[in-house]
Amino acid sequence: MRASEDDEAGLLRRIARADLAAFDELYRRTSPWLFLRLRRRCPDEQLAAEVLQDTYLTVWRAAGSFAAVAGGDGGATGWLWTIAARRLVDALRRQARRPETPAETLPVPAVPGADEEALAGAVGDEIGAALADLAPELRAVLRAMVLDGFTVRETSVLLGLPEGTVKSRARRARAALREALS
């Protein structure tokens, strides 16, 4: 475990005891990368900012649940991202239900993000090359389902696609990766 991850877990345990200084420190350390990650998933900067704010409000209220579950073994940034990702899906669902806001497909970023580069580097050159060869819409589904851990339904909301399309793209992506690696 990284030293900073351990530090962040400690901050969460202090936040569970209503330590405002620990909350300020956690926000200072984690909000820049969390906001950037949210922006990669959401083209609406205002919505991403609202999700960020809602995420930290949830952290303040629910830090005790992290402290109870973690028991000192870390996972603070993963827990934080899980909250933010769920809040983003909720916000996108609310936005899609508004009659004045059309539910459009979110654009796939043209420049690969750090998460895509990390995935390609973590899985090796051969798989990284196979991932790079996938169509952008297939990579977007894999990124949401594999890297972010979204369910089919959540990926559907996030990408503005029907669930059946998400399933078929995931199946096509797996088949393309299998073929590329055989």
Question: Brief overview, please?
Answer:
By secondary structure, the protein is mainly alpha-helical. The chain is 78% helix and 0% strand. Pfam families: Sigma70_r2, Sigma70_r4_2.
Structural features, described:
The chain is mostly helical and 182 residues long. It folds into 2 domains: 3-97, Rna Polymerase Sigma Factor, Chain: A (Orthogonal Bundle), CATH 1.10.1740.10; 114-181, Arc Repressor Mutant, subunit A (Orthogonal Bundle), CATH 1.10.10.10. It is 78% helix and 0% strand. The protein has 9 helices and no strands. It has helices at residues 3-16, 20-41, 45-70, 76-97, 114-123, 125-133, 136-147, 152-159, 163-181. Helix 8 (152-159) packs across helix 9. It starts with a helix and ends with a helix. Residues 101-111 have low confidence and may be disordered. Belongs to the sigma-70 factor family. ECF subfamily. One of its GO terms (molecular function) is sigma factor activity. This is RNA polymerase sigma-70 factor (ECF subfamily). Keywords: Sigma factor, Transcription, Transcription regulation. Pfam families: Sigma70_r2, Sigma70_r4_2.
Summarize this structure as a short list of keywords or feature phrases.
182 residues, single chain, transcription, RNA_pol_sigma70_r4_t2, DNA binding, RNA polymerase sigma-70 factor (ECF subfamily), globular, Rna Polymerase Sigma Factor, Chain: A, RNA_pol_sigma70_r2, mainly alpha, Arc Repressor Mutant, subunit A
